[in-house]
Amino acid sequence: MTTKKGAAAIAWWRHVVIRWWSCKCKCQWKLKLLLFLSVALTLYALFTFHSTHSPPDISFSSSSSSLSPSRHRLLRLQFDGVPKIAFLFLARRNLPLDFLWDSFFENADVANFSIYVHSAPGFVFNESTSRSTFFRDRQLKNSIQVGWGESSMIQAERLLFDAALEDPANQRFILLSDSCVPLYNFSFIYNYVMASPKSFVDSFLDKKENRYNSKMSPVIPKEKWRKGSQWITLVRSHAEVIVDDKVILSAFKKFCKRRPPVDAKKGKLNIKLQKQHNCIPDEHYVQTLLAMSDLEGELERRTLTYTVWNQSATKMENKGWHPFTFNFANAGPKQIKEIKDINHVYYETEFRTEWCRSNSALVPCFLFSRKFSQGAAMRLLSDGVVGHADTSEV
Ligand SMILES: *[C@@H]1O[C@H](CO)[C@@H](O)[C@H](O)[C@H]1NC(C)=O
Ligand SMILES: *[C@@H]1O[C@H](CO)[C@@H](O)[C@H](O)[C@H]1NC(C)=O
Ligand SMILES: *[C@@H]1O[C@H](CO)[C@@H](O)[C@H](O)[C@H]1NC(C)=O
Ligand SMILES: *[C@@H]1O[C@H](CO)[C@@H](O)[C@H](O)[C@H]1NC(C)=O
Q1: Number of domains in the chain
Q2: Is 268 a member of any domain?
Q3: 187 in contact with ligand 3, CB cutoff 6 A
Q4: Which of 26, 185, 319, 365 is most buried, judging by how many CB atoms fall within 10 Å of its CB?
Q5: Are 39 and 11 in contact (CB under 8 A)?
Q6: Domain for residue 30, yes or no?
Q7: Helices within the chain (DSSP H only)
Q8: How much is the pLDDT for 21?
């Protein structure tokens, strides 16, 4: 605003000055001098106003974040210690598989990891809600109510990244759900993730579904629209990109909305509602933002979290793909080995086969899996998947 006003004022004064100077009437030289001085003074005043009232930093929302982008970067530059992995849990309330994670973190070095939990506002991890001490006092104080499939989900993710960026030791950021399990011990996962200078982000062209809303253009061009699993692992600079973004997020809030289920009470309005784009923000936001930031070259374009999809068509409103839940019976050593043996992923919309690599070495694709019931997680624990099984405590 100030720049525009300033430019207009200068243009106006120039106009006046030229007219006066070149006027054919017998202008007094004193009048000319007076005019010249007043122009000079006005310009001086405008200039000083401008330099003391620099525009606010619009690239950053101070209400949702506690650090400025430059500070994040400063922390990154200053750090040279043992790098940590930040484990970011997006929970509905408690962590039902905390006993398995407890054993996983027991077998780690405390200097090598940190934990952050986003749970429902007001929910407290204490002796009665979690037997594991690892999750006490690790909750975000500024957590929000999350609607599954809504943009509040990506806002919760951003809060987790933002909190974790405050610790300069955090160099990798793994987003996990409350039904995720680790398939390996800590040191295996640590070495795998740290060895790679890239983020692990499942990201592909979304050709089949029509979730892109043309109203997003030109903020989000169609060719940058991506789809992929919500369960991502980021390097620090990419976590900063997520936290610093405001523009793409607001386009998502406006135009990427979940289609509401058919509600008989709404009658004919349903026809209109069902025509609306059905967009699940958490399956598009990070992928699209990173594509728009020209960072796809810094990605392993796959997820580290395994999910089995099951199409159920039992109820009309729930029609679609749902993750299959592992229970005690189907989480045995044979099934777990089958997941661990997967070494490539095929992306049918791009005819792309992704051979799984970490820092160019061929590696198993998956380090984590969902969705696991407590029984299934119990079986992993007793089979020693995350380390030495110590079932005597449980
Ligand atoms: C744990 O937190 C819950 C919810 O805030 C509270 O109701 C409960 O009394 C707490 N339990 C203990 C042992 O502090
Ligand atoms: C962790 O797992 C890897 C691979 O499964 C194994 O080679 C290694 O010995 C394990 N390390 C510890 C400390 O248990
Ligand atoms: C902890 O980090 C150090 C330094 O990166 C590494 O040498 C060590 O193996 C890590 N410990 C575990 C249990 O992964
Ligand atoms: C798939 O979902 C249906 C309905 O929800 C369920 O009955 C069935 O057991 C599921 N199949 C598998 C393999 O999970």
Answers
A1: 1
A2: yes
A3: yes
A4: 365
A5: no
A6: no
A7: 2-21, 29-52, 69-78, 98-106, 151-165, 186-195, 236-244, 247-255, 269-275, 285-292, 333-340, 374-382
A8: 45
Confidence band for 269, pLDDT divided at 50, 70 and 90: confident
Ligand 1 cavity residues, CB under 6 Å: 124, 126-129
CB 226 within 8 A of CB 204: yes
What's the CA gap between 166 and 176, in Å, rounded?
Answer: 19
Q: Is residue 202 part of a domain?
A: yes
Compute the distance between CA of residue 257 and CA of residue 273 in angstroms, rounded to an integer: 11
CA-based nearest residue to 304, from 350, 353, 354, 349: 354
Structural domain range at position 146? 69-305
Q: Which ligand is nearest to the CA of 385?
A: 2
User: What does the pLDDT look like over 194-241, one tens digit per residue?
Assistant: 999 999 999 999 877 678 988 999 999 999 999 999 999 999 999 999
**Would the CB of 263 count as within 6 Å of ligand 3?**
no
pLDDT in tens, 318-369: 556 789 999 999 999 999 999 999 999 999 889 999 999 999 999 999 999 9
The 10 Å CB-count burial string (b at 16+, else e) for 200-212 is bbbbbebeeeebb
Ligand 4 close to Cβ of residue 312 (< 6 A): yes
Q: Does 149 map to a domain?
A: yes
